[in-house]
Design a protein that fits this description.
The complex is a heterodimer of chains A (217) and B (179).
Chain A (H helix, E strand, L loop, with lengths): L8 H9 L4 H13 L1 H20 L9 H10 L24 H4 L2 E2 L3 E4 L2 E7 L6 E8 L8 E3 L3 E7 L2 E3 L2 E3 L4 E4 L8 E2 L5 E8 L2 E3 L1 H7 L6
Antiparallel strand pairs in A: 1-3, 2-3, 3-4, 4-11, 5-12, 6-9, 6-11, 7-8, 7-10
Helix pairs in contact in A: 1-3, 2-3
Chain B lengths: L2 H11 L2 H21 L4 H17 L11 H26 L15 H4 L3 H13 L2 H12 L4 H8 L3 H19 L2
The chains are: A alpha+beta (217), B mainly alpha (179).
Chain lengths: 217, 179
């Protein structure tokens, strides 16, 4: 797989520093798991963070801190509950997902517009943004839109294109208030994307304004 | 004594003397690091304790060829901080919705991220090629989470220079690491 489009560096750095909202972190994490370049970049930020930790001014620990840790070590370890495996309570838009997504919990999928379905991912820690799978039929032309917040998109299957180029599996697309685009889904197969979105979409054109009350993502 | 070697001794035979040295060095630094990024002293104390407990439990997973000890311990503290924020959010939502959530943490740990040693040496080499100025602005902005205005003040340079220096540093790092 050749990946041509990567997340902006500041998002990778925020991921490495642990500063991303949960939905954004999921999308960057799934991209990075497939992308050696971004893995190296994240590892570099982690190295710099290690150096910063080494240089941090120490703050004295509580008097009993070491004893508390040793007591926890000597406690018989409680069996950790195994991660739930493939026991999704709802049918998925696609059963063949990257491992990190298979471990997520999904809500029921629903139709967004003709030829477009979405399935929310349940993220209890998500604060400002939300994550979902977006399935689009071959040849779907999304409405021209911009964003009040940010939109992080990772192609899982199929492809789409807009002014920024063509996006294939593994490719990452970043949209914010300055981006105004109208993606077109490739005609040969459906397109499945993982999306993290904050804020709202703003539809353009008379049709967009007409239907935007009905398009809820 | 290298920190990596001490972690190795904890992994190999539960060496408590080695662990105590790790605790004495890293626990106060993890706490200091977290306090510096805005966490309360109590919360930082708890995460620092959990971080060292995790160092003990996961010592065998530490691969000295893939990450430095400090970077590895940073990622443990980072993931614990993320976990604790998630747990707090879950508790807040559980008050409204009794449904229990078991979604596992998605933060990637270094052992899953970096496995090829040729990658590891490239990462170290790239960092060494950054200028001090460049690694300083990356550290201040992304790791210590200082606002750009504060970085400008501390370094005594204009705000615009801070922004362009960060941008150039990130682009350079990316260039050095891309295939």
């Amino acid at each position: 797989m050749t990946i041509n489009h990567h997340p902006p560096e500041d998002l990778l750095a925020d991921f490495a520093a642990g500063r991303l909202d949960e939905a954004d972190r999921l999308v960057i994490g799934v991209h990075a798991a497939q992308c050696p370049n971004c893995q190296r970049f994240i590892a570099a930020i982690e190295q710099l963070a290690g150096a910063a930790l080494e240089q941090a001014a120490p703050v004295a620990m509580a008097d009993d801190a070491f004893a508390t840790i040793m007591a926890a070590i000597d406690e018989p370890k409680t069996a950790s509950t195994p991660a739930p495996t493939s026991s999704q309570p709802v049918p998925l838009l696609d059963d063949d997902l990257p491992e990190m997504l298979r471990r997520c919990r999904f809500a029921k999928s629903r139709r967004v517009a003709p030829g477009v379905k979405m399935q929310p991912i349940v993220l209890p820690g998500a604060d400002k943004s939300r994550a979902f799978l977006l399935w689009s039929a071959p040849g779907t032309r999304m409405l021209e839109h911009s964003h009040t917040g940010t939109e992080l998109t990772l192609v899982l299957k199929g492809s789409f294109s807009h002014q920024g180029g063509e996006y294939r599996p593994g490719d990452f697309d970043f949209g914010d208030g300055e981006v105004d685009h109208q993606p077109l889904v490739g005609s040969d197969m459906p397109c499945l994307c993982l999306v993290a979105m904050s804020g709202d979409l703003q539809m353009h054109g008379w049709l967009g304004r007409l239907i935007s009350p009905f398009v809820r993502l | 004594m290298e920190w990596a070697e001490l972690i190795g001794r904890v992994a190999a035979h539960g060496d408590r003397g080695a662990f105590k040295l790790l605790f004495e060095h890293f626990a106060p630094r993890v706490k200091g690091f977290l306090v510096k990024t805005g966490m309360s002293a109590d919360a930082a104390e708890e995460i620092a304790q959990m971080t060292l407990l995790t160092v003990w439990r996961k010592a065998a997973q530490f691969d000295p060829a893939s990450a430095g000890a400090a970077a590895w311990i940073f990622t443990i503290a980072r993931n614990l901080r993320i976990d604790s924020a998630r747990a707090a959010a879950r508790r807040a939502k559980a008050a409204v919705n009794a449904e229990r959530d078991e979604t596992p943490e998605v933060a990637l740990s270094p052992e899953t991220m970096m496995s090829r040693s040729d990658d590891v040496s490239r990462v170290s080499a790239a960092i060494q090629q950054l200028s001090d100025e460049q690694s300083t602005v990356i550290r201040m902005s992304f790791i210590e989470e200082h606002p750009h205005g504060e970085i400008a003040e501390r370094l005594g340079i204009p705000l615009g220079t801070v922004k362009s220096r960060i941008r150039l540093a990130m682009a350079r790092l990316k260039d050095l690491l891309d295939d």
